[in-house]
UniProtKB/TrEMBL annotation:
Main location per the UniProt record: membrane
Domain of life: Bacteria
InterPro entries: AA_Transporter-Related, Na/H_Antiport_NhaC-like_C, Na_H_antiport_N
Organism: Crassaminicella thermophila
Entry protein name: TRAP transporter large permease subunit
């Protein structure tokens, strides 16, 4: 199994990232190695990689434009006001701040489906508060990851409804008809695993950690907190609020995040919350804030295309099937861990469901798993790698906000903590739930 191109490629990618090689370079090198093991020529591998990058083109554009919107909002000072309000609300209690962050992240995928767009707006102004409390940002990364991931796994609302419908449709195509409502009735186990992971993270990363005030804006926010200054709310702040609402409404109306971001920027221009001469600065700020994430998502899409082209996923599933020995426990363990490898490589839990459902449904039925257990196996196996993967927006988003002052490492401060805190409980709870169901 170690000679499988997908497995070998994912291992290489993980090792290179842990050695702090740039994520984009790690993905490219891992793709080349995966293609080589599969017998693809270097030219073909790079061709598939570049050709597949278009799969995340809309997402990349969204992140750049949302970054520009976040920069514009930050320029008006609206985010600083929100930071001061939150500071007064939490009254110096770090655990309360982390729970507020997790709650807002939950809203971003359900009631207000903006996904990670809120992070570069909300988190950088809060860094001053975190620094004053000596909060370990790894705990904040885990809180954000919980809010980005737990709702879509567990609740059929917002992105969760999309995820549950994909599971329903793909299981139906594989001969196992279910309703959307059946998914959450099985996935509450995964939600409990995520909640367990959050509690573990809050305990493990509760010790004080020192950070320097390196960023001028963050330093100014800290001074405001020390002096308990009340920033006056002006017309441009109200215009900023209207811009945020406009961005959300447009996104929901036309289903386009880039269009929503453009709408928000347009409102801020018309209201003169930002000036025409500031546009260049806004775009540069957006690229600086979210450019890396955008490029990582592009390359990750190309990497996923190479992994599919190698045929290694199908071979991996066939090899794993032969190891199950008719045991439900062994089968559940292998199926869930297999999903972890695939999702770490593909980079999206939503895109992993179609790959594994076609094989898992007949396999689970033959091994005597119930429909409820099959739903849980597919949902957990597909979602596993989303937390901890260097190329997942569940990790890239938190890093974009927490590393605003350059003191938060993407791999060791976001990917490793979220991987350990969430994937381990998901594996354990998923196996136990599948066997019991």
């Amino acid at each position: 199994m170690l000679t499988n191109p997908v497995v070998l490629s994912v291992i290489v990618m993980t090792i290179l990232c842990l050695l702090k090689l740039n994520v984009i370079l790690s993905l490219v090198v891992a793709a080349i190695i995966g293609g080589f093991v599969a017998g693809m020529s270097l030219g073909d591998t790079m061709g598939v990689l570049v050709g597949g990058m278009g799969g995340n083109a809309e997402t990349a554009l969204s992140y750049i434009l949302l970054g520009a919107l976040a920069t514009a909002i930050a320029k008006t000072g609206a985010a600083d006001i929100l930071a001061l309000k939150i500071a007064k609300l939490i009254k110096g209690k770090g655990i309360v701040l982390l729970l507020v962050i997790a709650f807002v992240a939950c809203l971003s995928g359900t009631v207000i489906p903006v996904h990670i767009a809120f992070i570069p707006i909300l988190i950088p102004p809060l860094l001053a508060i975190m620094n004053k409390m000596k909060m370990d940002r790894r705990a904040a990364a885990c809180a954000l990851a919980f809010g980005l991931k737990a709702p879509y796994i567990t609740l059929p609302v917002g992105y969760g409804l999309i995820y549950h419908n994909i599971i329903r449709d793909q299981m139906g195509l594989s001969g196992m008809e279910i309703s959307t409502g059946m998914v959450w009735r099985a996935n509450w186990v995964a939600g409990l695993a995520m909640l367990t992971g959050l509690v573990i993270a809050l305990i493990v990363y509760s010790k004080p950690r020192e950070y320097n005030m390196l960023d001028k804006a963050i330093d100014e926010t800290a001074a405001s907190l020390d002096n308990q200054e009340e920033i006056k709310v002006t017309g441009k702040h109200y215009a900023t609020l209207v811009a945020g609402v406009a961005a959300l409404v447009i996104q929901l109306k036309w289903g386009s995040m880039p269009l929503g971001a453009m709408g928000g920027l347009l409102v801020m221009l018309i209201s003169r919350a930002i000036k025409w001469n500031d546009i260049e600065e806004m775009m540069h700020g957006g690229i600086k804030l979210m450019g890396l994430i955008a490029f990582v998502m592009l390359v990750a899409s190309g990497y996923a295309a190479v992994m599919r082209e190698t045929g290694g996923v199908e071979a991996l599933v066939e090899a794993a099937t032969s190891m199950m020995a008719g045991s439900k426990f062994i089968a559940a363990t292998i199926m869930i861990l297999l999903g972890l490898v695939i999702t770490m490589g593909i980079g999206t839990s939503f895109g992993t469901v179609p790959i594994i459902a076609a094989i898992y449904c007949p396999l689970a039925s033959a091994l005597g798993f119930s429909v409820k257990a099959t739903i849980l196996l597919i949902a957990v196996a597909a979602a596993l790698g989303d937390a901890g993967s260097p190329a997942s927006d569940t990790t890239l988003g938190p890093t974009a906000g927490l590393n605003a002052d350059g003191q938060h490492d993407h791999i060791w401060d976001t990917c490793v903590p979220t991987f350990l805190c969430y994937n381990v409980p998901l594996v354990i709870f998923g196996i136990i739930g599948a066997v019991i169901f």
